[in-house]
Design brief:
Metallo-beta-lactamase, Chain A, 9 helices, globular, alpha/beta, 10 strands, five-stranded mixed beta sheet, 258 residues
Length: 258
């Protein structure tokens, strides 16, 4: 019913952001997700035969709103980005890949396998739109716990930027935790669409397994009980305010569904 709802519900949200994140480190700039491409405005970019793209997606990204120009505005040249981490491979997170031909691209192996080929297109990915040079490096999770997460992958030598598995929205979804002092900034991708959805444990309609998504919610909330955590989903209009204020999950009331 969740998945049918996104196809046949006639109500639409207000326009939502598509956030990507740039992290400046001593080892170079790391970018998490690449946003969407302006090519989505061109007729035929989205496959008209696919019900999800025909009924449930509207994109309005202009060329100057792509990630490349945004990075230049803050003094970062895309060609100087050391590493790009994809939380998952839906087009609104991978559409800006063409800006990073010189960067190391990290993606979960399960996610990449599910996204490839025509089977990937049936699942709602657009592998036919990936750059011809695209050859990502699989994220190598280690059996090294990081807080409530049983596996992790350190991206920097100091262990302050860590990838953790957060399946739910897609089976191979990952998130990135950035540790600054005693605070963790949780770059959540589409683990939930909003901060409030996490608190209320509301699973989105795209997630193929509600149980898997709820287990991921619990891991995140457990992590936040012991570590001050700023939760930053990609489509939450309030993410930038929480980032600027370092507003943590602990400052909100955690509720459970009835």
């Amino acid at each position: 019913m969740r998945q049918l709802h996104i196809l046949f519900d006639s109500a639409w949200t207000e326009p939502l952001p598509i956030y990507a994140w740039a992290i400046e480190t001593d080892e170079g700039v790391i970018v998490v997700d690449t946003g969407e491409t302006a090519k989505t405005r061109e007729p035929g970019y989205f496959p008209p035969w696919h019900p999800y793209f025909r009924l449930a997606v509207r994109a309005g990204v202009s060329p100057e709103e792509e990630i490349g120009p945004h990075l230049l505005e803050i003094g970062i040249r895309p060609e100087d980005v050391r590493t790009v981490i994809l939380t998952h491979m839906h087009t609104d997170h991978a559409g800006g890949l063409h800006h990073f031909p010189k960067s190391e691209i990290l993606v979960g192996d399960k996610e990449y396998q599910l996204a490839k080929g025509f089977a990937g297109r049936l699942r709602g990915y657009l592998p036919n739109r990936w750059p011809s040079w695209f050859n990502p490096k699989p994220i190598k999770f280690q059996p090294k716990p990081f807080g409530s997460f049983e596996q992790s992958c350190s991206v920097t030598r100091d262990g302050k930027i860590v990838i953790v598995p957060t399946p739910g929205h897609t089976p191979g979804h990952v998130s990135v935790i950035v540790v600054v002092g005693e605070v963790s900034y949780f770059l959540a991708g589409d683990t939930s669409y909003t901060h409030q959805a996490l608190l209320e444990q509301k699973v989105d309609g795209v997630s193929p397994s509600k149980a898997t998504a709820l287990r991921t919610f619990e891991r995140i909330l457990t992590y936040a009980r012991y570590t001050p955590t700023v939760y930053l989903p990609s489509h939450d209009p309030e993410s930038t305010e929480r980032l600027n204020l370092s507003a943590t999950i602990q400052s909100s009331n955690v509720t459970t569904p009835e």
